[in-house]
Amino acid sequence: MKIVRRAGALSAVLVVLAAQAQTPVAHAGTVEPSKKAETVVSLTFDDGDVTHPSAARMLERRGMRGTFYVNTETVGRDLKLTRRQLAAIAKAGHEIGGHTLTHLRLTELTRSEQRVQICDDRRTLVAWGYRPTTLAYPFGAVDSDAKSVARQCGYDAARAVGGLRQWKCPDCPAGEDLRPKDRYAIRTPGSVREDTLLRQMKQQVLNAEKGGGGLVTLVFHRVCDGCGVYSVSPGTLNEFLDWLASRKAHGTVVRTLHDAIGARYLPLPSE
Ligand SMILES: [Zn+2]
Fold first, then answer.
1. DSSP of 52-74, one letter per residue?
2. CA–CA separation, 147 and 158 (whole Å)
3. What is the pTM of this model?
4. Ligand 1: centre distance to CA 22 (Å)
5. Domains, the chain
6. Ligand 1: distance of its center to the CA of 217 in Å?
């Protein structure tokens, strides 16, 4: 009798679940407490550094994918990725994005120089077989010209540096909108540096989770021990990635910037 009652209760639950599955709109008050707003973390790695293949593998081991921004003119140079390494990163499912030809500060260039830096870099990436949809401005330096040139060169979005809440900007929002208001200046916390603590990286994500979700794009450069101001130790990154994987239960996921904002591939401009 008891068993029958339980079976009855179970089918009642199933009926309720089936009814919920058919109802696309969640009603206030009926949402389970675990159903929180989504926080998407994008892990971006700038400058095509020679340490990036191992960083990519750290992500892959946890089923994560990142975004790698390269300067095509420097690929194959000392301490930079080779074309073969770049291809391997892309083949593993990571996003390859543009970072301009030679990493000049765009805000100090004329519009036609910006066009060469952004469009020719993207043209090269396309010639190498990639489909770049997002750009990262070198040094995060962006003005209205650089934004419109990025758009003309066929980028669907571009990443700035800064604009989100961190110790330098306590009043900034904790997360960027998943549909950023300015797709050509996507906000981030400041770059992760050698002196950035694991605790601070975690706090960025926790703040966004608490603040109703959104997009947290982290900006990394070199991934090695004691190799400059703009570096993160592999040990710290590993610990952070383990922690990040555990946040899935809190509605936090890791996506490439392309996937996070649903970027579209747009054609190159005619020369
Ligand atoms: Zn850079």
1. HHHHHHHHHHTT---EEEE-GGG
2. 8
3. 0.86
4. 47
5. 38-261 (3.20.20.370)
6. 15
